[in-house]
Amino acid sequence: MSVLVHRAGVGAIGVGMGRHPEGTRARSTAAGDYFPLPTGPATPQRGVRAPAEGLAARERHERAAPWWLGTHGGAGETTLAGAVAGSAAAGHAWPVPSDLSRPQDVVLVARTHLTGLRATQLAATQWASGSVPGVTLVGLVLLADAPGRLPRALRELADLVSGGVPRVWHLPWVEAWRLGDEPRPVPRELTRLIHDLDSLLPGRGV
Known about the structure:
Elements: E1 25-28, E2 33-36, E3 56-60, E4 67-70, H1 77-83, E5 88-89, E6 93-97, E7 104-111, H2 114-128, E8 135-143, H3 152-162, E9 168-171, H4 175-178, H5 188-200
Parallel strand pairs: 3-6, 4-5, 4-7, 7-8, 8-9
Antiparallel strand pairs: 1-2
Helix pairs in contact: 2-3
């Protein structure tokens, strides 16, 4: 089973903007809260070609805040859907709305192993090319694929991939999730992720 955490307080990629140090925060004048500054482009970019292969798209009439889109099998989208109230797993397919004027909020999800990072690079390129209409990419969650520090080559690839999405959150290895249990205590990185989503997605949980 997964822990359900409710909102706190108020109930070749590399194109785009420059990188900001991880953890850089900006104040939201509307909510009086903090949220992560972008690390990459907030919208699709001109000149980015769609990859030959990419994630499928599926029309979704229901809404979620946000949709978790696992870029590969075992990414953790179902785990996050069970841990974050108001969110849902996208089933490894872009959740395209029937009404394109009401875009769906999507967060990519991946493990930090080589397969996961390469799959995320393809998904980010697919989004950046503009070939996924009706989607607002909020960012990317990278879940540790094992305990301990990432090897240097994977850290560098993760940095490269991070530069192609609006913002990135890192979640540590959680042994309880591996066993289908509730993590106790709740990882502070997960609490921070939920707090950020509450600031970034107006009306979340309302």
